[in-house]
Amino acid sequence: MNMSTLAARVAQRCALHPWRVLSIALILSVLAAWATAHLPVYTSRQALLPKNNAVSDRFDRFLAKFGAASDLIVVVEGADSDVLDGYARELAVRLRKAPEIAQASDRVDMQFFADHAYLMAPPEQLNRLMQFLAEQPAPSSRAGKTEIQTLLAQAEVWLKTHPEPSMDSVDIKMAEAALAGVDFLLGQWQEWLAVDTPPLELDLAKAPGDSGALEGRFASRDGRMQFVFVHPAKSVEEFESLEIFMNKVKAASVALTEDYRQQGLEVPVVGFTGLPAIEYEEHINIHKDIILVVCTSAVLILLLILLVARSVRWALIIFVPMGLGVLWSLGLALFTVGHLTLITSGFIAILFGLGADYGIFTSSRIAEERAAGQPLETAIGRGIGASFHAVLTAGGASLLIFCALATVDFVGFSELGLIAAKGVLLILLSTLLVQPALYALLPPRISSRAAQAPASVTLPKWLRHGRYPAKLAGIIVGVALLTAALGLWRGFAIPFDYDVLALLPADSQAAHYQRRMVAESDYQAEVVIFTAPDVAEARRITQDAEKLTSFAKVQSIASLFPADAGARAAKAHDIARQINQGQWAERVDTLTREGLPVAAMASLGRVLAGFETWIDATQELAFSSGQTSLVERLESIRGRLSSLQAAVIQGESARLRTEMFWRAVLKWGGQAVNILSRWQSAAPVLPSDLPLSIHDRFFAQDGTVAVYAFPAQTVYVPENLDRLMKDAYQVSPEATGFPATHQMFAVAAVQGFVRGTLLAAGVCLLWIMLVVRRPKGVVLAALPLLIGGGWMLGLMYVCGISYNYANIIALPLVMALAVDYGVWFNHRWTELTDRTPFEISLISGRVIGLAAGTELAGLGAIMLAHYRGISSLGKDITLGLICCLLATFVVAPAIGQFLDRKRKS
C-alpha cells in the first residue's frame, strides 16, 4: 500500500466518523488556545541573538551585575530653558520614587563633583592656582583704593610688562577652552549693553560646549532639549515588564504636565526615545499590525474563496482546517521554543497565506471526484488520495525550507523556521484529517464553479491551438531563464540597510528623537559599555577612550579616584587655606557691594585697549603656527573688544549696565570661592562616599566598575559601527552594550540569510527530486520557482529596494509559499496526459490562481502594516509571489512542451 492509498483510506474513515474527528480537534484547539494565552513575547533584540558566544556572554554578565544596559530617555523641549530645567528636575524626583525605576537622572550632582574637583583637575592646574593665590597682595595693602581699582591697576601693569606670547608648551585644547570662555563672557557683556532690559544672571545656555555642562544638566548642545535618563530596576526583556515600566514613566510625565497646565505654567513638549522606547513602539505597532493583517487577510481570503467558489461551505472547508493548524502551532510554540519574538510573532500571517493552499488543492480534487459521480465519502477519500502526492511534495518542500532556516545561528530566523515548520506540519495534518470530516458534514453543491471537472474545460478561441508555437515557446523559455539568471546575479548587489530606526513607523517618536540626539547632542541611546575589575583599570580605559574620535563623550567616575589622591587632597588644603587667609570671600562681597564707580571707567577702557593689543600679538603667533581654530577664536575676541571699547564710553547707562554685568560675574565667582573654601576638608573618596545614583550606575555589588562611552556618529552605518567597535575592542576586549550586540546582530542576520537561503533552495530541490523522481517532472516542478525567484531579485534591484532586518527573509519565504505552484502544475501535467498544455494551464490555473490569491490576500495585507519593517516584507513577498505565479502561468507550459514534445495539441 502506497502513501496516497493510505491517505485516501484515512480520509475516508474521517469522513465516515466526522463528529469524532471534530471533537478531538476541538479539544486540541481549547488546549492550544490556553497555551497561546500563556505564550510570552520577548521584545528585546537580545532574544534574537545567537547564544553562547563571547559577545552575548559579556552582555549577559553586564545585565546580571547592573540590571539593565539601556536607559529610557525622556526628551523635554519646546519651552524656555528655565521651564525645561524645572520640569526635568521634578520629573526625575517623581520617577525615583517608583519601585520599577532604579535611577532617574536629569543632571550630574555638580555640588558633589565641585567639592571634589581637586581629584579630577590636572595637577598643573592646581599648582597654577596655588601660585596665583600666593602672588596676590594681602588685603591690608589695598588701603585707599577700591577693590575694582586695585584689580584694574594690576591688569594694566601686567599688560605693560607681560612677556611676549609664546606657543611653547601650550596645551592647545586647554587654550581653546580658555579662549572660548573669554569669548562667551565678552559676548554676554555685549548683550547686556545692547538689550532693552538687561538680564539678572549670565545665560549659561550660551556657554561653549555642552550648554548644560556648567549646571550638570543633560542637554543638547544648544540647550533646547533636555534629557532625563531613566534606568529600569530590572531587565525589561519581556513585554509585560517593559509595558509596566513604560506606563509608569508616561503616567508620571502626564501627571506632571497636567500639574503645570493647572498652575498656568508653560508646558514643554515631552517625548521618549532610547532602546526601551524603540522596543515598546516595535511591539505595540507589530501587535496592532498583526491584528490588522490577520483580520484583513482572513476576510480577504474568505471573500476570495466565496467569489471564486460561490459557496460558504467550500470557504469553511478550506479556512477552518487552516485556522486550526495555525492555532495548534501557536500552542505548540509554548512547549517548544517557549516564547515569541518580534520576528516570530508575525508568522501567523505567513501560515495564513500558505495554509490555505493545501485545502484548496485537496478540496478541488474532491469536487472533481464528486462531479464524476462518486458517492460523498468515496469522493473524499479518492480526492485526498489523488492530491496527496502533490500536497506532500509542496508541503514537504515548505516544511524542509523552514527546517533549513531553523539551522542558522541567527536566533530570530532559526526560531521562525522552527515554529513555521511545525505550523506547516500541523496545517497538513489538519487538512488531511479535519477537512474530510468537515466536508462530510458540509458538502458544497456540485454546481459550484470550483467543482467543475476537467472535461468541462473549454479554451478561448485565441488559445484554440492548445500550445505555443515551437519558436515562441523557445523564446519564452530562453528569455525567462536569461532574465532569471540576470536577476539572481544582480541580487548579490542589492544593498542592505542596517538602520534599525528605518523599520519603525514613519511617525515614530523614538526614531525622531534618537536621530536628533545624535545630530544635536553628545548623547545617544546606543552607548558602548566598558567594565573593569577595579578603579585602576577603569581609569586606564577612560583615558584611552577619551583619546579616540569615535567617542563623543565618556562617562566615568575613575577621575574621582586618582592614584595620587592623597597628594591632591593636600594641595586642596593649601588652596583652601590661601582662600581663607586671603579673605577672598570678603573681597568678592566687597567688589559686589562697591560695584563699578565712575573713577574706574577710564582704567577699564585702558585695560580693554591693552588686552586687544595682546590679542593681536597672540593671533599673529597662532597664525604663524598654523593653529586655525585659535586664530578664528582670537579674531572673535578682538572684534568684541573693539566693540566694547566704543560701548563703555557711552555715558552713565553703559556704566550701570556694565556694573550689573560685573555683579553677575561676581556672583558666579563667589560660588567658585565658596567651593574652594570648602576644600579645607578635602580627602580621598571611597566608592561608599558616592551619591547613591552615581554609585549604582558605575559600581556593581561585586565591585565591577562601568565606563560609558557615547558614540560620536550613528551606529546604523556599518562603517561607523565597525570603526567604533574596532576602537572599543582596542581599548578593552570586554566592551559590550548595544553597539557590540548590534554589530553581531547585523553579521548574524546577513550570514543567516545567505546560509538559510542556499540551504533552503538545496533541500527544496532535493526533496522535489526525491518525491517526483522523474527528471522531467523535477524540472517542470522546480523551474517556475527558480525563475520567479530570479525575477523577484532582479525587480528588487531595478526598483532600488534594499534589504533590511525584516525583509531579508522574504526570498526563503517566497520559496516556501510558491513552491506548490510548479508542483501542482507538474502534478496535473502528469495526471492529465490527454490534455493540451493550455488546457492543463487552465485546469491547474484555477486552483493555483486561487491558492496564490489567498497567499496574496494573506501576505499582501502585510503591506498595510504601520511598522515599516513588516510592510517592506509584505511588498517583497507580494512581488515574489506575482513573479512565481507569472512564471507558472506563462513559462511552465512552454517548459512542458520542450519536455513532452508528443503532448496533444
Please give the largest β-sheet: 4 strands, antiparallel
Task: Count the beta strands.
Answer: 8
What topology, given as strand order, has the largest sheet? 2-3-1-4
Helical/strand content category: mainly alpha
Helical content band: 55-70%
**Strand portion:** under 5%
Instruction: Label the overall shape.
Output: elongated
Pick out the low-confidence regions.
448-453
Essential attributes:
905 residues, membrane, four-stranded antiparallel β-sheet, mainly alpha, Alpha-Beta Plaits, transmembrane helix, elongated, 29 helices
Give a description of the structure:
- Keywords: Cell membrane, Membrane, Transmembrane, Transmembrane helix.
- One of its GO terms (cellular component) is plasma membrane.
- InterPro entries: MMPL_dom, Mycobact_MmpL.
- It is a single chain.
- The protein has 905 residues and is mainly alpha-helical.
- Among the domains are: 70-111 and 216-276, Alpha-Beta Plaits (2-Layer Sandwich), CATH 3.30.70; 142-212 and 582-681, no CATH class.
- Helix content is 65%, strand content 5%.
- It has helices at residues 3-16, 18-37, 54-66, 81-95, 110-115, 123-135, 147-161, 172-194, 239-262, 275-309, 312-335, 347-371, 376-405, 411-441, 470-491, 509-520, 535-546, 565-581, 584-594, 601-624, 628-647, 652-678, 692-698, 718-731, 738-772, 775-798, 810-831, 837-860, 868-899, and strands at residues 72-77, 101-105, 225-232, 269-273, 528-532, 551-555, 705-711, 736-737.
- A 4-stranded antiparallel sheet has the order 2-3-1-4. The chain has a 4-stranded antiparallel sheet with strand order 6-7-5-8, sandwiched between helices.
- The protein starts with a helix and ends in a 6-residue tail after the last helix.
- The model is unreliable at 448-453 (pLDDT under 50).
